[in-house]
């Protein structure tokens, strides 16, 4: 399966979050390509570590926005969304550590990419923006 590619259909209507998503997807493409061509493992791990930091900063930015949600639906969303960020990050870190141990993880990388699109970019983040708008919260930074 080819790497996931950025599509403007993933935009959720918040400039800085959309920018983060685009960079996360594009950098994941580079990481997948490095793994698929069996580049030097030190280089792959360096790219992976940068990507994990990037994802963690992105999750923090969204969590700062969600901290303003006050209504029950918004609070429930925040709990679920933050837990999913943590689960996703742990899964990505496990994968990074598998690669460090020399395991072939091309399939697992494909799954991780699909999850990034399916869970983070599309499902939860669209829902988050809808809840922020419903509570009248300012979206742009
Ligand atoms: Fe998210
Ligand atoms: Fe996101």
Automatic annotation (TrEMBL):
What highest taxon heads this organism's lineage? Bacteria
Q: Which part of the chain is the Hemerythrin-like domain?
A: 16-105
The UniProt keywords, alphabetically, are:
Iron, Metal-binding
The record's family statement is: Belongs to the hemerythrin family.
Q: By what name is this protein known?
A: Hemerythrin domain-containing protein
């Amino acid at each position: 399966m080819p790497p996931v590619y950025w599509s403007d259909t993933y935009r959720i209507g918040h400039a800085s979050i959309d920018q983060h998503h685009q960079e996360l997807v594009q950098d994941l493409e580079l990481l997948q390509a490095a793994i698929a061509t069996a580049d030097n493992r030190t280089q792959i791990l360096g790219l992976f570590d940068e990507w994990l930091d990037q994802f963690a900063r992105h999750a923090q930015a969204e969590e700062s926005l969600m901290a303003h949600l006050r209504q029950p639906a918004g609070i429930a969303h925040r709990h679920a969304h933050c837990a999913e960020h943590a689960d996703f990050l742990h899964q990505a870190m496990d994968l990074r550590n598998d690669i460090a141990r020399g395991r072939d993880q091309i399939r697992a990388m494909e799954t991780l990419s699909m999850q990034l699109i399916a869970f983070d970019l599309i499902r939860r983040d669209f829902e988050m923006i809808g809840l922020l708008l419903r509570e009248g919260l300012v979206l742009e930074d």
